[in-house]
Amino acid sequence: EPEVTQTPSHQVTQMGQEVILRCVPISNHLYFYWYRQILGQKVEFLVSFYNNEISEKSEIFDDQFSVERPDGSNFTLKIRSTKLEDSAMYFCASSELVGETQYFGPGTRLLVL
Amino acid sequence: GQQLNQSPQSMFIQEGEDVSMNCTSSSIFNTWLWYKQDPGEGPVLLIALYKAGELTSNGRLTAQFGITRKDSFLNISASIPSDVGIYFCAGNAGGTSYGKLTFGQGTILTVHP
Prior knowledge:
The complex is a heterodimer.
Chain A: E1 5-7, E2 10-13, E3 19-24, E4 31-37, E5 44-50, E6 53-57, E7 65-68, E8 75-79, E9 88-95, E10 103-104, E11 108-112
Parallel strand pairs in A: 2-11
Antiparallel strand pairs in A: 1-3, 3-8, 4-5, 4-9, 5-6, 7-8, 9-10, 9-11
Chain B: E1 4-7, E2 10-14, E3 19-25, E4 31-37, E5 44-49, E6 55-58, E7 61-65, E8 71-76, E9 85-92, E10 102-103, E11 107-112
Parallel strand pairs in B: 2-11
Antiparallel strand pairs in B: 1-3, 3-8, 4-5, 4-9, 6-7, 7-8, 9-10, 9-11
């Protein structure tokens, strides 16, 4: 069964450093998403991406964040200058069409020290 | 912004018992999804609901999309120890939301053998 994959599974970084989180969505899916989950809290939407453009972003997704589909399979989330409060699980998701079921990856646990 | 109120926050039950949890919203959603999350992993889809009034089953799980489109419930019958985890409802409002999912706060389920 096709699944969303994410790398790395864990990342530890120093405050102010740049991080890039990688995702490989399900191959025939056209819509891609990033969510985050701070420890013990609910999952929060960050950004949706379609046709090489951001479709929607939340207020969390400020200028420090960017997304990219650098090739036909990868979808990345970059945090330019990490802050302590960026520590969270980051989940990538994809769906075949907008409004259809989103399938989530296993997440990247980011710890900013 | 849109918010989903999920209850109960946690449940402690005996193996074999039935479980019910629900989500309500002050605004309309076009899609309701129920996910299960195990510790340190990504949300796994359980049931997807696309039409008001829809009642859908997946094994021992049954979920309904409320007629008003502002609520949904999930029932688990004859619970077993592997049902332990965090259950999240999620909704998509459609329109200009481009697939953005709003998540509830989660229900932590503990099943005693």
